[in-house]
Amino acid sequence: MAGGWLGGERVHLARCASTNDEASRLARAGAQHGTVVTADEQTAGRGRRGRSWHSPAGDNLYLSCVLRPDIEPLDVPPIALAAGVAVSDAVNAAGLETSVKWPNDVLCCGKKLAGILAEMSTHDQRLDYVILGIGVNLGNQSFPTELAARATSISLEGGDDDPTRFTERLLPCLEDTLDVYAAGGLGAIAPRWRERMHEGLLRIDVAGDAIEGMPRGIDDEGALLVEDAAGARHRIVAGDVELVGWLEAS
Ligand code: BTN
Q: H or E segment at 218?
């Protein structure tokens, strides 16, 4: 069990549209910092860039936290980087090696195992709350055709896929990395993220332009640094980042 502020209040639902929506509803009603919502199934689970998140009933993790950090809205996106480090640590504790891919993926054997979606609510340009949503493929034995080449689960990779044990491992890791971020900013998280960074060739689509290159870490603002074949460095603040292996496979 997490012994601190994260998960002191917990809500578990058999089914909901999205745990991010449920957590957001609770936040609007005054839920405290650290409230955690989980579900067995999501009927409209969502990911970044308007994508859906495959959320069948069964042994996967769909978890959202209500966070009320004392930070500016501009400082919210790195929370997803910090969460990636925490998820990576929890999966390692479940017996698997992992890497992180900017901005919000956790990979195992080069395939996506988990995704993170941080959404915020602001009032008069001040941060009201953040909903940090985490989806981890624990027990999936198969995926829809369009995901099959790029997605995996803890079960498929031979790790400990028990949802209760995984959640109890994840919450302390998450609490720790969020505390480190709150105290030291991105500078305190960046080295931990860099250690876990997936080293494969990336293709990034930025407003219709494609860049291919190797990841070289993140800078002090959380932007991804990429070096192309000509040695030119690119700083990526937004865009669709895919492993070149995924593109070949799709
Ligand atoms: C991504 O990889 O694009 C992010 C996926 C985030 C999925 C999680 S599952 C729990 C929470 N509820 C949602 O609807 N989305 C997040």
A: strand 209-218
